[in-house]
UniProtKB/TrEMBL annotation:
InterPro entries listed in its UniProt record: UBC, UBQ-conjugating_enzyme/RWD
Name used for this protein in its record: UBC core domain-containing protein
SUPFAM superfamilies in the cross-refs: UBC-like (SSF54495)
PROSITE patterns in the record: UBC_2 (PS50127)
Domain UBC core: 8-160
Annotated organism of origin: Chrysophaeum taylorii
Biological classification of the source: Eukaryota, Sar, Stramenopiles, Ochrophyta, Pelagophyceae
């Protein structure tokens, strides 16, 4: 019975990832390393962290899909925020004190992960911050300096192109190549949310024939993927 329940949970995880492929918040990209361990990156285009390229990891514990079994989010890049511990752990419980698997999913967690980069208010009601120093310094010049340092470090080639960091994450970057500049520009443009969606939280297709020049590397594969996603949406 226990093995059967585990199989059902594993199946739900695969369904979640399939849904996430076309419904992730804008500028957030995730690929699986293992069934319950995913590698991700977020491109921040506005606000205090603008220009940052922050790597993170998603881990789904064996009990995930039970009540109060939260996914675990951890940044591999330095992120100075009251919601992020010095070790990179994200305080998902700050937004979701209770986790209901019928209402909350990985995309829910990733939406919160994105929103924490756009927080503009104080943290008076946040009594147990994951980073007390960040809360204390919020809205001070030192906070801005610390955030700017994180953004700079996230773009440092030693960090950005480190393929051997944290057990060889699948989602990694190559050095600058001219033939990929167009694709890089597409990703950044689509990561920038429209005026009526300031947080970029509305799910939307990231790639189509209007946004991918046909001469880009892997363009055909990307377009095939989009076509497959659209067919799946119509069938669901």
């Amino acid at each position: 019975m226990e093995e059967e329940q585990g199989g059902v949970k594993d199946y739900k995880v695969t369904i979640e990832y399939k849904h996430l492929r076309s419904n992730a918040p804008g500028g957030v990209y995730v690929v699986p390393i293992e069934l319950r361990r995913w590698s991700g990156v977020i491109f921040v285009r506005r606000g205090l962290y603008a220009g940052g390229v922050f790597k993170f990891e998603v881990r789904l514990p064996p009990a995930y899909n039970d009540h109060d079994a939260w996914p675990e989010l951890r940044f591999l890049s330095d992120v100075f925020s009251p919601y992020v511990s010095p070790e990179g752990a994200v305080d998902l419980k700050a937004a979701y004190p209770s986790w209901n698997p019928s209402k909350h999913f990985v995309v829910t967690a990733l939406t919160f992960l994105k929103k924490l980069f756009y927080v503009k208010r104080g943290f008076e009601d946040y009594e147990t911050p994951f980073n007390p120093e960040a809360k204390r310094l919020f809205e001070t010049p030192e906070f801005l300096e610390r955030v700017a340092a994180c953004v700079r470090k996230s773009n440092d080639p030693k960090h950005l192109y480190d393929h051997h960091h944290h057990h060889h994450p699948m989602l990694s970057f190559s050095g600058k190549q001219k033939n990929l500049d167009g694709l890089r520009d597409v990703i950044y443009r689509l990561a920038d949310p429209p005026e009526d969606d300031p947080y970029g939280l509305e799910p939307r297709k990231l790639l189509d024939r209007d946004t991918i020049p046909p001469d880009l590397p892997l363009a055909d594969a990307c377009l095939d993927y989009v076509a497959e996603s659209k067919r799946a949406d119509k069938q669901s």
